[in-house]
Amino acid sequence: MTRRGQLVLVAATVVAVALVPILFASLQLGYHDDVRATADYHDDPSVDALRVLERAVATESASIPSQYAWAENDSAVATVRTGLGPRLDRLQTSRIEDGVHYNITYNETAAQQWEDANCPSGPARQFGDCATDRGVVVQNRVDRTHVLAVGFDVTTTTERGATTVTVVLEPSGRSSR
Which InterPro entries does the protein's record reference (predicted)? Predict the structure, then answer.
């Protein structure tokens, strides 16, 4: 083999070795030919609505224990729902200009299922009874009413169609879907 052939072979090897990290990097990053679909996945308007709802539930639930004894838990639930009302109304039309509409309703069944799964009964429990009322789960803690969770159905309508998410939000920031 001539000196020139050896030089070409060495150059080809250097180029091949240089391409190996690029190949691995592209495999790790993945590839998707529909960039708009990928961006829309990360910009799901339902996620935005749930974030707003989480903050609203936390804010409206914060003062309930100091205001309501357990005997007044019916009034505590009414206060939470009344406080959430204007926020829900604003949220439902907040992205109309972007072609997004939210329909938000309370889900009593999801809240009841959350209560059944998360409120222990019997003598070993730390706190008192739980109750689900109009989609809001409350608990008796030292004769004060504490809001534990609120169940919602959130229907998001865009030009692509409508999706409905059932979620139970806790004032602590945890949620279940």
Answer: DUF7261
